[in-house]
Predict the 3D structure of the following.
Amino acid sequence: MRKHVLRVSIAFILALLLTAFISVPVFAADIRSGDTVIVSDSEVINNDLYLAGNSIIIDGIVNGDIIGAGGTITINGTVNGSILMAGQTLIINGKIERGARVAGNLIRIGGTVGRDLITLGSDITLGESGKVGGDILFLGSSLLAGGPVQGNIRGSSGSITINNSIGGNVDVDTGNLSLGSKAVVKGTVTYTSENEASIQPGASIAGEITRTIPEEKKAAGGIFAG
């Protein structure tokens, strides 16, 4: 069910992006498309940027927002705005000054997202070198939060691993929740799961830990109990 919702959600975002491309006035933004679209490291774009391509690489500076769709999207440069992007693979090694709304099969964050990260993805990873300045709101098959998050983590995923500092609360629906030895949660941990969370020695949680068993699991237990 979760995978079906994920596929539908990604398709919906792609449709929204297509609508954005059709409706944007030509004078309002820098629009680029092609098999391979590159913003070189010597470029400075002082406009919003609309991109479409099989391969999109942003090495330069964008002083505006980016809306884009592609096969593989890589951001190594600086975006002094927010991004709304969808692709098969999305990699952020650079800096997003504001928020990031991204959808894709494989999502890798090794750079900085200044505000909230809102993401739909099959495999979502915030690496050790990555950082999110706001909340992570997500729907996916797996989430690894290996870098610091200043806000909350909220969402649903088959498996969730947290192994760095979380400045707020963790509120998730998951099959398996794991807190590694480097995990520091400064708020509460609230999770819905059939399984007890795995909390490694060294992990620190300032607030309460609350687990809710899914209703279907309770019902099954009631049928077979006794």
Summary: Residues 40 and 59 are 5 Å apart (CA to CA). Confidence is low (pLDDT under 50) at residues 1-8, 220-226. The chain has one domain: 28-212.
